[in-house]
Amino acid sequence: xxxxxxxxxxxxxxxxxxxxxxxxxxxxxxxxxxxxxxxxxxxxxxxxxxxxxxxxxxxxxxxxxxxxxxxxxxxxxxxxxxxxxxxxxxxxxxxxxxxxxxxxxxxxxxxxxxxxxxxxxxxxxxxxxxxxxxxxxxxxxxxxxxxxxxxxxxxxxxxxxxxxxxxxxxxxxxxxxxxxxxxxxxxxxxxxxxx
Length: 195
What we know:
By secondary structure, the protein is of the alpha/beta class. 24% of the residues lie in helices and 32% in strands. The strands form two sheets. Strands 2-1-3-4-12-11-10-7-8 form a nine-stranded mixed sheet, with helices on both faces. The chain has a three-stranded mixed sheet with strand order 5-6-9, with no helix packed on it. The longest helix is centred in the last third of the chain and has 13 residues, at 178-190. The two termini are 18 Å apart.
């Protein structure tokens, strides 16, 4: 198993690399010209939707991501990386996302929660995809896919894990969620490829 991290250079990806080092050989790239074929690509991210889209396009990562998505190759996206897959975001008006998943990104509006949503929260998975456990969140926004059947994990009303074919999207940070996060990353990386 070999993996490539698409580094937008707008956050510290040390914890992502450290987690993946346990599971596969890892290469970090900052431009599409450095890309070599991989079993899985990983798009982590923190920061604003606008800055994320600017960096993806500037680096040519949009072409790599769309190719993998269209050809049902394996993609793992984390936090902002997941949000950038959507059509648009309340955070950055008039900025189009990659639009690979129809839907938008909304400010978290849950009266019982303080923002930013920071800390450990229980995620519940459907179809016994994985054990219900606590994971580390750091969010002000959440994804809102039009097709709700793509939501395979949630915390309260917050979609926390999306799956479509061989695409896996985490709203929380599995790489900062201890052993449970590592095991969940391992399951997504090594789950048999859907045709």
